């Protein structure tokens, strides 16, 4: 009997196709996983920003998750935009019966253009109710600052920050992303509870197409977890996949603002004529 590696994303829809559910499903597909989705909110957005957010009722979010997991099942789950406390609680509730599925939570607190994508009570519920079920949390620096209530301004502050996040949040591991810092060499730092931190370096690519990098990275890690890799190897391979997708997408023009990365740089390259 053949079985696909299966990955579920619980996230918001990005009408522009570069972030959210759309980026997650592209990433799962590019990495050879069967992708499924539970949509938490419909956003109207494009490469210039988010213009509207319409939440899906929490009970409908919970039912999407129940229906997928009780029938098809998932080998890994990625969680993105949750929008509000009732949605966070509905997701925590629906996932509680599945403690053995690895879960990656990208704590989407605001869009890159600054629009808030979760409310204050949602943040508290995320830390208190959902984090205990999470294998890997993937905050960017502004999100880490919100979660820690202190500034993280340089690469040398990141190791202290990742340790402090692990003390404050009951998840198993953290990947703190340094993509928002100045400088030509970027660093992400990964730490599993009780282990030494690991650093992942990347040369900063000169590109306008960075929309959805966070979504793509967390889904790539989830895809590798679904395929049976260890957490450390999934982070390593997920980071490498994103770097290739950023590089492969840098010369394309999509919209007037921040375009997407190129998820399909493999054998069937997006944009190439047959
Ligand atoms: N210009 C770049 N070149 C190469 N890698 C980058 C670049 N910008 C960001 N990255 C990488 O992309 C990943 C996402 O980092 P970032 O800190 O931008 O997350 P994010 O803010 O959550 O993303 P998003 O903009 O999708 O919300 C990290 O691995 C980071 O190192
Ligand atoms: C739906 C959605 N999720 C996440 C992000 C963050 O990139 C976004 N802009 N939109």
TrEMBL record:
GO molecular function terms listed in the Swiss-Prot or TrEMBL record: ATP binding; hydroxymethylpyrimidine kinase activity; phosphomethylpyrimidine kinase activity
Pfam annotation, one family: Phos_pyr_kin
Keywords on record: ATP-binding, Kinase, Nucleotide-binding, Transferase
Enzyme Commission number(s) from the entry: 2.7.1.49
SUPFAM superfamilies to which the protein is assigned, alphabetical: Ribokinase-like
Pathway: Cofactor biosynthesis; thiamine diphosphate biosynthesis
Domain of life of the native organism: Bacteria
GO cellular component, one term: cytosol
InterPro entries registered for this protein in UniProt: HMP/HMP-P_kinase_dom, PM/HMP-P_kinase-1, Ribokinase-like
Domain Pyridoxamine kinase/Phosphomethylpyrimidine kinase: 14-262
Any one of the GO BP annotations: thiamine biosynthetic process
NCBIfam families: HMP-P_kinase (TIGR00097)
Protein name as catalogued: hydroxymethylpyrimidine kinase
